[in-house]
Amino acid sequence: MSDSPAARLQQLFDGHRLTPTQRRIAHCMVRKAADVPFLSSVELADLAGVSQPSVTRFAVALGFDGYPALRKHLREVAPTEPSPGADEYNEYQQAVQAEIENLKHLSELLADPRPVEEAGRVLAGSLPLPVLGLRAASSQARGFAYFAAKVHPDVRLLDESGSMLADRIDGARRAGATALLCFALPRHPREVVDALAYAREQGLKVVTVADSAFAPVAGHSDLLIPAAVGTGLAFDTACAPMLLGRVLLEAMCDGLPDAQARLEEFDAKAAARGLFVD
């Protein structure tokens, strides 16, 4: 882990059993790590969309006497300066700036490459490799599966919900799959949580890209790597999860000895067919 304010907050929350409301507060604090030591409980509650008493109960759940004690602790262990105001930006620019912050947090997380490298080895070793993503996360799963199929011999996209989902997980397991990659973004469908629980019951190792380490899928993931989504527009934006997916692809390629040969073969065939316009 890096030693950024976000990483230190993450370490503070690790090991605590938090309620969904408390996970929401924790997620908000990680996203606003530079500002949190300077916020009142009312301001934090407003940012997280919860009640002020919920913030107080959250602080107590972490072992503090109340929110003032938590804030004092944060100022001591994670000293930082409050981020500059965004008054000079219009609402569209603020959404872009928020995504830039999400990418910065992802960069800080990747300062320790070991989780991604481990995930890459796990995914490379699974044949076939099922890739799950429903509703808002389906585009992330589809993008990963499209590129992964260029280097991995058998990628199976699971992007349709319904009673067949468990059957397709069974089919992948019978064919030899040892792992499943999941993209899980808000709002989190209950079916994704159930599918991950079922996949683990069948012996698959679950690697998850989620918007937060406190997402509902965390308890059903063997390895979860968080990448925050932007929430400043009417619909969430997911630049960081998409980039993390490409990083996982790179790590997976490192674990596939014939990845480069497969890419070169594809390029040769594409040139022969005149597939792309220069």
From TrEMBL:
PROSITE patterns associated with the record: HTH_RPIR
Location of the HTH rpiR-type domain: 5-81
InterPro entries linked to this entry: Homeodomain-like_sf, HTH_RpiR, RpiR-like, SIS_dom_sf, WH-like_DNA-bd_sf
PANTHER family (alphabetical): GLUCOKINASE, RPIR-FAMILY TRANSCRIPTIONAL REGULATOR
Identification of the protein by name: Transcriptional regulator
UniProt source species: Streptomyces chryseus
Organism lineage string: Bacteria, Bacillati, Actinomycetota, Actinomycetes, Kitasatosporales
